[in-house]
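Record now logged underneath.
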Amino acid sequence: MTYNYKQDLLKRLDEGSLPDIQLDHQFTFNCKDECMGRCCNNITILLDPWDIEIMVRHLGVAGQHFLSEYCKYEFSHELKWSYVRLKPEFP
């Protein structure tokens, strides 16, 4: 994301000129050749139990297998709460 894009986005947020996002809206994204995963490489994706259930069913694997292969358990000392997130890299 370029600096100008970020500045424009912040300006539009301040002005209230961005369109509202509704629950039934959809969006798509594509990795471009010049990026190929670098832009989203450090994103932490937290999973709730329903996310895990959906992925387990889609992949047709056992829940424990999915958790051990694709997820990391972590604990937030600030929140005093544990959570599950996708591993940044898969086996």
User: Anything to note?
Assistant: The first helix runs from residue 3 to 15. The CA atoms of residues 66 and 88 lie 14 Å apart. The two ends are 29 Å apart (CA to CA).
